[in-house]
Write a structure and sequence with these properties.
- The chain is α+β, with helices and mostly antiparallel strands and about 400 residues long.
- Helices cover about 35% and strands about 30% of the residues.
- The strands form 3 sheets. The chain has a 6-stranded antiparallel beta sheet with strand order 3-2-1-6-5-4, sandwiched between helices. A 6-stranded antiparallel beta sheet has the order 7-8-17-16-13-14. A 5-stranded antiparallel beta sheet has the order 9-10-11-12-15, covered by helices on one side.
- The longest helix has 25 residues, at about 110-135.
- It starts with a helix and ends in a 7-residue tail after the last strand.
Length: about 400
């Protein structure tokens, strides 16, 4: 049995909470590894949290200014020379573009690191898939991701999210929420088939548990309607009825909904009291507006109408909630269009998965304090278009 097959089999047969033990044992036996550690990105994507021992005894690693963080940010293996001629490979652990963390493997020397780099990167990829599956049966990896305690509202919101990033040949998506450990109302959701991408960006009203419950109801109503195979306008109408039936207009939720055709780039859009959308095309940034319709749940039996929209290869779409564009500085100055435009232009060379976090860092500087008073949501969509068939 070759080395890679042995590692893959060990991971696929390991108990959910023993994935790291399994991969560590096989890498030591088959590749001569001297040390193996798994780090997962925390909810704020500021540090890489060690999984090895719970409660944690290893120090978390910064996403910025660390060799492991370099592998995480670039999504490429990074080789670090350590003492006594040893080499440490930092390997991204990702699933279809969703960045989970880094597997760090210490090997006897640089020659071994170069020889096994590609194969070990593939094992890190298998490990990522197994971690996602294992999270159905163990809290180990979800616990490891948190450097602080989540509020109950934040726990509910993170459990609803599809991931923080994903990629396909036609597009790349990245998203981030703040305050990561105390969010309550803002949310995003996406789902793709062979030919379509559906994207929701929501901005819920209220605070704490009540805001989270409202968003939970609305997002699951949208998912239920989407999975029934109905149009995006009817999805909005059914979710509107579900929210109104429960709250009778006391609470409602803003949402911007897209249904993209991956072949043509044409989309149907429902703007129900939406977050803002900005498009970067050929270096020019433009704020896009659609016909405004009522938020979900404001009135009984609201009818929604889908509008047409089109993206072209090379377009970058950036969605922001009011916790971004309306946030005030210590002097009371709103962040506004100009500052947001500068932040989007300054991140134009970053991949979509990195853009939301970079914009939110800029926002923190404007706000003047680390913890915002309102949820802040940024979603970035890079549209590549469907590659021609061979």
């Amino acid at each position: 049995m070759n080395r890679f097959v042995a590692a893959e089999r060990a991971l696929r047969t390991a108990a959910p909470h023993e994935l790291l033990d399994a991969v560590r044992a096989v890498l030591i036996e088959q590749y001569g590894a001297e040390n193996v550690e798994l780090y997962l990105a925390d909810y704020g994507v500021s540090v890489l949290q060690p999984v090895s021992v719970l409660p944690h005894t290893l120090e978390p690693l910064p996403v910025h200014n660390s060799p492991a963080g370099r592998a995480f940010g670039s999504q490429r293996p990074y080789r670090e020379e350590v003492r006594d001629g040893r080499a440490r490979l930092h390997l991204p652990v990702s699933v279809r573009g969703d960045r989970l963390g880094v597997l760090s493997v210490t090997l006897p020397g640089s020659d071994a690191a170069r020889r096994w780099e590609t194969e070990l990167a593939e094992i890190a990829d298998v490990l990522g898939h197994e971690v996602v599956v294992a999270e159905r049966d163990t809290d180990l990896y979800l616990q490891a991701r948190r450097k602080d305690r989540l509020t109950l509202a934040a726990e509910m919101q993170w459990q609803m999210l599809p991931g923080r990033s994903c990629s396909r040949p036609e597009y790349e998506l990245g998203a981030q929420l703040e305050p990561a450990y105390a969010i309550f109302g803002d949310n995003f959701d996406w789902s793709a088939t062979a030919d379509r991408l559906t994207l929701y960006v929501t901005n819920g009203m209220g605070e704490g548990i009540e805001a989270s419950l409202l968003t939970n109801l609305a997002v699951n109503a949208l998912r239920n309607a989407r999975r029934a195979g109905i149009s995006i306008a009817d999805q909005a109408a059914l979710a509107d009825q579900a929210v109104y039936a429960h709250y009778q207009g006391r609470c409602y939720l803003s949402v911007l909904m897209f249904d993209f055709d991956l072949t043509t780039g044409r989309a149907s859009v429902v703007d129900a009291g939406s977050p803002q959308l900005l498009r970067l095309r050929d270096g020019t940034l433009e704020r896009l507006s659609f016909e405004a319709q009522l938020p979900l749940g404001m009135f009984e039996e609201t009818d929604y109408v889908a509008q047409d929209f089109h993206v072209e290869p090379g377009d970058r779409l950036v969605f922001v909630s009011d916790g971004v564009h309306a946030v005030a500085s210590p002097k009371g100055e709103a962040y506004g269009d100009a500052a947001l435009a500068r932040a989007i232009h300054s991140t134009r060379l970053l991949p979509a998965a990195e853009v939301p976090r970079a914009i939110l860092r800029e926002l923190t500087g404007h706000r003047g304090k680390a913890v915002p008073d309102d949820d802040a949501l940024v979603v970035c969509l890079d549209w590549h278009g469907r590659p021609p068939r061979p």
